[in-house]
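Support request, please re-run this one:
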Amino acid sequence: EEEAQNQYCSCVGTICRCCVDFDISYVDLGGPGCVAIIYKPDDKKLFVNVTYGDSQLHIDQIKDTVPTTTCISLLGELAQLCAEFTDIEQAEQGPKGCVSLTPKLLGSIQETYKLGCFTVATQGMTFSHSHDHTHHHHHHSHHHHAPTPRYQSAIK
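Re-run finished. Output below.
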């Protein structure tokens, strides 16, 4: 239940914002990491804004239905925070799709947080959590709390 405890989403109008409190034990970057999904009904454009802590770091337009990843760099190039969009569809009343937040360290994915899926309807944007628990690591749930030497030596 790793993902469920430390992530939260809220929607206002045609903007949804989801955050994850990263308890990434091998490096404390002072999160949380957030992704805002912004729909502009006037020109029918979908934007994504990825932030980390207090930094407004990145805004991108999601143009098509292909899976899209948008990343921000942290610690120079050592770490990245990526928002990944999948299942994007352009419905008549607006786009819908699903989003995950993925921290990367030295280019390798540490953990994928499936935030859920958004839908734009006439009354605004709604967000539903993914109830897919198959990606939880029940049998070795503690493994990513113990830093391996590899991570520590990379950060020093």
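The helical segments are 2-5, 149-155. Confidence is low (pLDDT under 50) at residues 132-156.
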